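Input.
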Amino acid sequence: MMKNFILIFFSLIVLSCSFDNKTGIWKDASQFPIDNQITESIDGTNIESKYENIFTQNQIFNEEKNSFKNLNIVLDDPVKINNWFEQYVSLTNNVSNFSYKGSATLVSKSPKLSKLSLNKNIIFYKNNLISHDHKGKIFIYSLKLKKKIFEYNFYKKNFKNFKKEIYLIINNNRLYAGDNLGYLYAIDLKKKTLIWAKNYGIPFRSNLKVANDQIFLVNQDNVIYSINVRNGLKNWKYSTTLTFLKSDFENNLAVDELNNNIFFLNTSGELYSINYLNKNINWVINFKNSSLASDTELFFSQPIVINNNNIIVTTANAVHAYDPLVGAKKWSFPSDSILKPILTSNYTYIVSKNNLLICLENSTGKVLWSKNIYKKIQNKKIKSKIGSIFYDFKIVNNSINLYSNNGYLLSFNYENGNFQYIKKISKNGINSEIVFLRHNMFLFDNHNKLLKFN
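Output.
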């Protein structure tokens, strides 16, 4: 009897979280060019999603491999970043090679910007830092004047003791903020005034993207929204599968602006490709185990990244490459990536949980080389001080840089993974994404101070 009750309850939950057919916007969705197993319906149109078996029989890759003698790895040219308007800097969540003319020499340090914990994702607007604390106070810090020039708290006293998680993005001199209270609001950065504010009832839990005058974001129930940038009104929304167990992974969005597609990886392990102009679903891939009878499994991933004809998706035990246009699988590699991958035109770089730095060939997924990141560090005392937690991972002026929570920068050769040098860059550790802006490097330390390097 109890078993039947559980089965009925689960069936009702699945039905309540099915594709939204009430809004009238999801019509003529594209058919999938891949082998499919699950069929769903939107306004009478059959939409099929593919289950991807992520439980590979291969063991997690755990070996060092030297590069081939005649291997000629060529990177994309370094890119100078003039504006850092959003988390992960670009619509694709990916910059393959940052331009930075400095030597990681500290040139300035701000005063303590807050007594409270700060948002770890730094954005910049016209040479000014924008961040917020967990009480919801958004502030602008002038690099030139070395002081705060604007503070704003949207929240009333009844939300005073509620910890705020705010997701920020800048577009056309406007700052858009979505939060874990279900609010979305816009601030005019020139006039420093509130333009509009809307409450959508359920906490948001994703990065924000802006394309075609639409703001895209996702709530904690895995519902993706398209919002009008001018007035905050809903253009459309789309419900995907709800998950009851929450991991640290947040819903993640990336945009292919050339083909007008938004990619949405939700906390249930589903990757959607949606054309945001005609509102068609291009394809869906499910990375959860289709044999599970209930939602008892947490889904873990790093943010998705796009470059040219590749989209890289990580799961708890594999790295997957797909064609972003048709959703066709290219390869899977058995590794547990701990940081957002770096995707160049021809190569994918990852850092695994077993301390390997790995270079994969994009066309095949073949390992070109793999190196243990600690092996060449002879000084045992320094090795212990580095720590085992890395906060960020970037290619900078053709060098692969790893940044540890304890404030160390480790540099490696991009062609063969050979260790180059180690440098302590922050005595108070690192507590943010590393940002490269106009040939300078920025980060927050654990004392909420902004460090600038040349």
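Residues 2-16 form the longest helix (15 residues).
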